[in-house]
Specification:
- The chain is 42% helix and 16% strand.
- With 311 residues, the chain is α/β, with parallel strands linked by helices.
- It is globular, with a radius of gyration of 18 Å.
C-alpha cells in the first residue's frame, strides 16, 4: 500500500510520515516547505519519495496522487492569527488546495482521503466537551477554511463515492513543532522562552483552557482512520478528553525545566477560543483510539526535544 502525506515535512506530517515508514508502508511526501522543514524529514528522507510542490497547483497534486492508495491531507497554512492577518492566502491553501487534493484523488481512484480538520470549527460555544454533532461556529478565517474542507470531504464522499474521514485535531504538540515563527503554537513558544531564560508571553489572562494532545496520539489515530471500515464519511475528534489552562501549562513546564521565570501577559488575540475540550467517544468506537501519552509525559518528551535542538 502506498500513502501520500501532503504537508509531510511539517510538524504533524513529518511525524506521521516517519510512523508510516516504520510500519513498512511506501510513503510519498508532498510539501512546498513554506512552513515544513527539510530537517523534519532528514533522518528518513531516503525512505520516502519527495515531491516538492504546492497543493494550489493542480498539475503537481495530480502527479502526487498517481498510484497512491491513501491520501493523508495535512498540508495547510496553520494559525488563527495568520488567517486574521491574511485571509486570502490562507484560503487559497486551506480551501482551494484541499479541493485540488479531493478532485485529484477522486480522478486517480484513491481509496480514501484522511483530512486534518481542526477543533477551531467548534468556535467559542460554552458547551464542554465538544461533540462532533454540535453545530460548528467558526470564529476566524482559519476555522472557517478548515470547516469548508470538512464540507468538501462530505460532499465528495456522498456525491462521488470518494471515501473521506475528517479528524478534528485538538491542539497537537510535540517534537518538530515550530517555535521560530510569530504564528508558532503556544507550547513550543513557552518551552523555547523558558530554555532561553525569557518570560513566556500569555495572550489574555491565562485562564483559557485547551485539550492539548501529544503528536504520537494524533499519528496513531490518523493511521487508524485510513483503515477503519466504519469511519468513512465521518467527522471524528482527536484529543485526550481533558483540558488545562495556559497558566497551569506554564506551571507544569516550569517544574519540568526547574525554572521560576514568570510569564508576562499581553492583550488577547482576535479569533482565539476561550475553552476547548473534546469528547473522544467517537474516536474510541470507530478507530479503536485511546491516547497513550498523557500531557505530563508529552511535555517531558517535548522539552527533551527542544533542549537538544537548542543545545
Amino acid at each position: 500500500m502506498k500513502f501520500l502525506v501532503t504537508g509531510g515535512a511539517g510538524f504533524i506530517g513529518s511525524n506521521l510520515s516517519q510512523a508510516l515508514v516504520e510500519k513498512g508502508y511506501c510513503v510519498r511526501v508532498l510539501d512546498n516547505f513554506s512552513t515544513g522543514k527539510r530537517s523534519n524529514i532528514r533522518e528518513f528522507e531516503d525512505e520516502v519519495e519527495l515531491i516538492e510542490g504546492d497543493i494550489r497547483d493542480m498539475a503537481t497534486v495530480r502527479r502526487a496522487v498517481e498510484g497512491v492508495d491513501y491520501v493523508m491531507h495535512l498540508a495547510a497554512l496553520p494559525s488563527v492569527d495568520r488567517s486574521v492577518r491574511d485571509p486570502v492566502t490562507s484560503n487559497q491553501v486551506n480551501v482551494d488546495g484541499t479541493l485540488n487534493v479531493l478532485v485529484a484523488s477522486r480522478d486517480a481512484g484513491v481509496e480514501r482521503v484522511v483530512y486534518a480538520g481542526s477543533s477551531s470549527a467548534y468556535g467559542d460555544t460554552p458547551t464542554l466537551p465538544k461533540r462532533e454533532d454540535m453545530p460548528p461556529n467558526p470564529k476566524s478565517p482559519y476555522a472557517a477554511q478548515k470547516l469548508m474542507g470538512e464540507y468538501y470531504c462530505r460532499i465528495f464522499y456522498e456525491l462521488y463515492g470518494l471515501e473521506t474521514v475528517v479528524l478534528r485535531y485538538f491542539n497537537i504538540f510535540g517534537p518538530r513543532q515550530d517555535s521560530d515563527s510569530n504564528y508558532s503554537a503556544v507550547i513550543p513558544r513557552f518551552i523555547t522562552a523558558l530554555l532561553e531564560g525569557r518570560s513566556p508571553t500569555i495572550y489574555g489572562d491565562g485562564l483559557q483552557s485547551r485539550d492539548f494532545t501529544y503528536v504520537e496520539n494524533a499519528v496513531e489515530a490518523t493511521i487508524s482512520a485510513a483503515f477503519a471500515p466504519d469511519a468513512k464519511g465521518q467527522v471524528i475528534n482527536v484529543a485526550c478528553g481533558g483540558r488545562i489552562t495556559l497558566n497551569d501549562l506554564v506551571d507544569k513546564l516550569q517544574k519540568i525545566l526547574g525554572s521560576d521565570i514568570p510569564p508576562v501577559y499581553a492583550p488577547p488575540r482576535p479569533g482565539d477560543v476561550r475553552h476547548s475540550m473534546a469528547d473522544i467517544g467517537k474516536a474510541r468506537s470507530l478507530l479503536g483510539y485511546e491516547p497513550k501519552v498523557d500531557i505530563e509525559e508529552g511535555l517531558r518528551r517535548t522539552v527533551g526535544f527542544f533542549r537538544m535542538a537548542i543545545a
